[in-house]
Design brief:
By secondary structure, the protein is an alpha/beta fold. The chain has one domain: Rossmann fold (3-Layer(aba) Sandwich), CATH 3.40.50.1820. The protein is built from five helices and seven strands. It has a seven-stranded mixed beta sheet with strand order 1-3-2-4-5-6-7, with helices on both faces. The protein is globular.
Length: 215
Amino acid sequence: MTGSHHLLTRGPSPAEAALTVVLVHGRGGSARDMLTLGEAMDRDDIAWWAPQAAARTWYPLSFLAPVEANEPHLSASLATLDEVVRSAWAQGAAPETTVLLGFSQGACLTVEWAARNARRLGAVAVLTGGLIGPPETPREYEGSFAGTPILLASGDPDPHVPWSQVEETARVVGALGAEVDLRRYPGRPHTVSHEEIQVVARLLGGLTDGREVDS
């Protein structure tokens, strides 16, 4: 992996899996934590890939800080995520069977990478996060999600992620052609709730129902 980043995996290879899910942890979290989240969904036909950030953080400041203030760490972390996704594709995953799921800082990194590389994917699950940069940041992204389902779920109020930024993210990715599922959880702590795990599990199930996988 790039620099001091590492990758943990669980399940079949991307070539043999129904889906490949890239799990991106939050500040202070770990790849192992995210694999545990995958295990909670009890799917042995999914390739779970979880990159680990150096020092458990993808960039030093809030995601609402000016973009340049989080450099060069932000660009390096986006490059790491790009490397992980493209490695999965090189090993047999199709973009249409690739799902990105991030929590908190990892959710921000995930949706920022997705917007900068907009194309048809299996799905993107943004759990308590939004596009990176302050509210007045120009959102001049190219490409099209072409109907990719994008889940945006967050507590409100959240100590790190203002609901207004989640709503702005929903507008931006919707304008890029995503099928947006926006879910607000009043009073929910800064965590992944059981209900969100169920929502993601249903999302993954909807992507694989009726699909045969080569063995």
